[in-house]
């Protein structure tokens, strides 16, 4: 997955336009500015709750075209001075040189062209800060991190593989062909049970969840996600405080058959056309929360619809509708906002998890009773 998505010259994210109508998928920030504005309001509430530190840095994992970052920064700038986080630096976890240029241009357009910006190959390279409050954004980032698929068999957990059969008659020039689908276990695929081999150890909460699964169950496990989540928790739980949001599709549970490919807004076989296909899997938020627990507190996840409506989606939408110049524009704004909270789509499929320094309680809107 990592090679197919991030190879410098052949990777999916590094060689093409992947976002928007002209790409393969559309994200919430691309649909409506309201999404970024409401996330910004949540960050402000946490910054204020932690004493309004005088220096604030923004750390975003996988900023894409910089749309979400720009909406958040623009919202900060529009707030009155006492409620405006003073942005002292920006750190972006990005590997694509093409997207780095797009992100830089977006920062200039937003009025933050002079703010110190650093790009990092991975979140582990983002330095710990002694005096900057950390605003951390991870929107549709963890779903693209590599997974392993395991099946519980009569002989214990075994990794599900998809072997390739090579044509040894090279004179025919035939390409390698798949000998099995991604859901078919290879006969020789004997691997250690995931509770013993995944981060957290055999006594972890993750191991306990997996131990209860019946024979025939499958799970998708992402050790890379575990490491990235721990690194993000270190940043948020640092000495200067912080607040993070992880927004992705998934739930507080493990998935077994969610790995898929996206191409031209359609779900496709993830093993076809490597480098031309977005590869993704649902996020296990319980797994992320366990990995973060040493350094930070987590809250949620909440469905995206509940998170956005609790933070004032309807009043903000009403304001945008009043300011729309035409009936057609009003319909576009209303349709986009409804798409963000539609219970049969983004509103329920996407979840939001908050990350705060250890011990934080009553974090709105995660503290609201159902």
Automatic annotation (TrEMBL):
A family per Pfam: Methyltransf_28
Catalytic activities: L-arginyl-[protein] + 2 S-adenosyl-L-methionine = N(omega),N(omega)'-dimethyl-L-arginyl-[protein] + 2 S-adenosyl-L-homocysteine + 2 H(+)
InterPro entries referenced in this protein's UniProt entry, alphabetically: NDUFAF7 (IPR003788), NDUFAF7_sf (IPR038375), SAM-dependent_MTases_sf (IPR029063)
Compartments reported by the entry: Mitochondrion
Primary location recorded for the protein, binned into one broad class: mitochondrion
Disordered: annotated segments: 172-205
GO biological process: methylation; mitochondrial respiratory chain complex I assembly
Alphabetical keyword list: Methyltransferase, Mitochondrion, Transferase
Protein EC: 2.1.1.320
GO molecular function: protein-arginine omega-N symmetric methyltransferase activity
A Gene Ontology cellular-component term: mitochondrion
Sequence ranges of Low complexity compositional bias: 173-199
Family according to the record: Belongs to the NDUFAF7 family.
Physiological role: Arginine methyltransferase involved in the assembly or stability of mitochondrial NADH:ubiquinone oxidoreductase complex (complex I).
PANTHER family: PROTEIN ARGININE METHYLTRANSFERASE NDUFAF7, MITOCHONDRIAL
Name of the protein this chain belongs to: Protein arginine methyltransferase NDUFAF7
């Amino acid at each position: 997955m990592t090679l197919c998505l991030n190879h410098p010259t052949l990777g999916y994210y590094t060689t093409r336009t992947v976002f928007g109508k002209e790409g393969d998928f559309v994200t919430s920030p691309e649909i409506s500015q309201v999404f970024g504005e409401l996330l910004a309001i949540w960050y402000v509430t946490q910054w204020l709750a932690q004493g309004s530190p005088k220096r604030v840095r923004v750390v975003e994992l996988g900023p894409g075209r910089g749309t979400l970052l720009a909406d958040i920064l623009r919202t900060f700038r529009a707030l009155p001075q006492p409620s405006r986080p003073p942005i002292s630096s920006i750190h972006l976890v990005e590997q694509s040189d093409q997207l780095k240029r797009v992100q830089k241009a977006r920062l200039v357009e937003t009025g933050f062209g002079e703010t110190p910006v650093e790009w990092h190959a991975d979140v582990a390279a983002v330095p710990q800060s002694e005096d900057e409050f950390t605003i951390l954004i991870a929107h549709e980032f963890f779903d693209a991190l590599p997974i392993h698929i395991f099946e519980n068999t009569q002989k214990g957990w075994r990794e599900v593989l998809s072997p390739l059969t090579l044509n040894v008659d090279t004179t025919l020039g035939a390409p390698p062909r798949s000998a099995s689908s991604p859901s078919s276990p290879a006969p020789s695929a004997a691997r250690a049970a995931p509770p013993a081999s995944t981060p957290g150890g055999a006594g972890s909460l993750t191991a306990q969840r997996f131990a209860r699964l019946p024979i025939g169950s499958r799970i998708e496990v992402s050790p890379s996600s575990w490491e990235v989540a721990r690194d993000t928790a270190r940043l948020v739980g640092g000495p200067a405080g912080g607040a993070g949001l992880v927004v992705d599709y998934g739930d507080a549970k493990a998935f077994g058959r969610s790995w898929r490919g996206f191409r031209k807004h359609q779900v496709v076989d993830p093993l076809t056309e490597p480098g031309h296909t977005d590869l993704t899997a649902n996020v296990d938020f319980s797994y992320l929360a366990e990995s973060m627990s040493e350094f930070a507190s987590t809250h949620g996840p909440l469905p995206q619809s509940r998170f956005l409506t609790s933070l004032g989606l309807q009043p903000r939408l009403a304001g945008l509708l009043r300011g729309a110049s035409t009936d057609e524009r009003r319909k576009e704004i209303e349709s986009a906002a409804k798409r963000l909270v539609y219970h049969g789509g983004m509103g329920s499929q996407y979840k939001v998890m908050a990350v705060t320094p250890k011990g934080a309680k009553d974090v709105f809107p995660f503290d609201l009773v159902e």
